[in-house]
Write a structure and sequence with these properties.
Chain A is mostly helical. Chain A has a single domain, classed as Orthogonal Bundle (ABC transporter involved in vitamin B12 uptake, BtuC), CATH 1.10.3470. Chain A is 74% helix and 3% strand. Chain A has eleven helices and two strands. In chain A, β1 and β2 form a beta hairpin. Chain A is globular. With 390 residues, chain B is of the alpha/beta class. Chain B has two domains: 211 residues, Response regulator (Rossmann fold); 148 residues, Response regulator (Rossmann fold, 3-Layer(aba) Sandwich). In chain B, 42% of the residues lie in helices and 21% in strands. In chain B, α3 runs parallel beside α4. The longest helix of chain B has 20 residues. In chain B, 55% of the residues are buried. Classes of the chains: A mainly alpha (308), B alpha/beta (390). The interface between A and B is large, with 49 and 41 residues.
Amino acid sequence: MTFNLFVGQVLNGLQFGLLLFLMAAGLTLVFGIMSFVNLAHGSLYMFGAYFAASILSHTGSFLLAVFGSTACMFVIGMLADRVGLNRLHRRSHLEQVLATFGIVLFCNELVRVIWGSAPVYMETPEALSAAIEFLGVRYPSYRLLIIVSGLAVALLLYLMIERTRLGMLIRAGASNREMVGALGVNIGKLNRIVFALGAALAGLAGALVGPILSIQSGMGEPVLILTLVVIVIGGIGSIRGAFLGAILVGVVDTLGRVLIPVWLRAMFDPAIATAVGPALASMLVYLMMAIVLAFRPQGLFPVKARSQ
Amino acid sequence: MVSQIKRSLGVLVLAALPALATAQQQPVKIGFLATLSGPAASLGQDMYDGFMLGIENAGGKLGGVPVEVIKEDDQLKPDLAVQTVNRFIEKDQVDIVGGVTFSNVMMAIAKPLVDSDTIFIGMNAGPAPLAGERCAPNFFFASYQNDQQAEGVGKYATDKGYKNVYVMAPNYQAGRDAVGGFKRFFKGNIIGEVYTAVNQPDYSAEIAQLQAAAPDAVYVFYPGGMGINFIKQFRQAGLLGQIPLLSVSSFDGSTLPALKEIAIGAISGSFWGPDFKNAANQKFVADFEKKFGRIPSQYAAQAYDAAMLLDSALKKTGGNAKDKAALKAALREADFESVRGTFKFNKNGFPVLDMYVFEVAKDEKGRVSHKTLQETLPGHSDSYLKDCPI
């Protein structure tokens, strides 16, 4: 593999990782602060994509589609928490898993009722529909937009968490939520904002993938599984963990898919390599998760000063 | 001379008797099974719409007798499909079972259908074993054998003189069959053979490898959402229009509404296109568009042919679906106007097909559709026929 191709593949890994980060940031906060296992996070991503496609087809403005869809998801996150999800916070994790899995099935059918069972079309903005020269490789310009947006969101989140009062409460909540509540902070309200923020980020991820992926019922599940892997590897409740974990998973998954078949072909019969390669490559991130869980069950970059 | 006329009249009356008797007959019961929920629901829905349109065009009846269609969803679950088929046979006592979208479902229900000698009309899935060693006299596929389309595209790639082709498919049986069928008729080199995870959303890494390999053409099999993901990303990498993109079952009537202009220029192999000029097809396409407001897909066309096939066979048996031997013989004759032009069964119950390649292009109304490019394999029988012991 040439150096240029390698650079291109690392960019692909980075782009995939940043997309996972948008998902993981929200999920890890909800999980870490509210101790709420939300399997329906993938459905929020799916709704984000559908909203963006609908707004784009009605207004023709890509920017409006992305921001509008993100804002819609923030409001929906607020409402969902207020209407019923907050009742689940105090339940056991198993009950949360069952309830939110039910919500996943419901949402998948709901989008079919609203938008039909055929996949929905979303155009790539004209200015970003081709490939450009970047670091010596031809790279799709739309994917560069995803990389830039992902990095910008990461920076904004970092500033918010480290520099604002809300961020301080979130950090405190992730470390010890009972103590934060005892100090007079309205944990219910904090939870609602955190949940809505997570929903908005998932919606943003969905809106951004609209032009590269098929928008269809059930599109959230494959992403949700990788997102769970990311937060397990990164450490639950940690934004920094979600960021580094997401990039690690993105790069390892992408390079694994490319390199493992090549290495196998060099060592074994081509027939065996084509049979085993794809299976092995798709297992790679799960293997990584298993190793992390065995040696550092708290994740690679856990929240510091967690109540022991 | 007069006595001859009298005798002929007598024969005519006798011939008409069964037809008169059918007026009091029970309706023909058909169990329709397809995937009608989940991500692939649009395929099953198209099949159902095509089949019901066929019945409607035959006067709301098949072969002059009323029909009762029992519609069931298999949810793409083979175990559920087997239960449903058993219920069709034992409880509903259907005369005919039809439909089936996916090959794994088809393989699961083959045994109960063979054991009960229930007549089955396939409207999409055509797995290799049922064309070869496990072929059965009660199976009639109004669709195609899975490999046939891939074989046509392989021939096309050879005819175009492509030397180096890069192939990609999802890592499961149908993906490997689609590549196998292509290789059987492609005489050049395969410079890359990549199998991706089933339902993988992102192909950026694979597309970068493909680009580096600089092939003369790319051949893919990515049904449903996978095809949409692939071609969007292939285009954003600046490759669509640069490297010819050949495909089967990827950029078809089920995905074009979500792709529109994005897929223009992609080549796909099939035996039917909405622009076929024969009278049966023009009527079908016009009626379908009028009724459903969209261009029919190949899934709808196959199911429509299935209804026309049943109509012709039931006419021959005078509407009698209980005499299985007679109905099978009538079905085997396949004496109907197919939307694909000609239609003939091989002994394994799969059709002999004229294979074509199509280009995704705008039709005369400015909608994105399939345009016939050229014929690849005329009168093409499937590759498993020789293994069929019938």
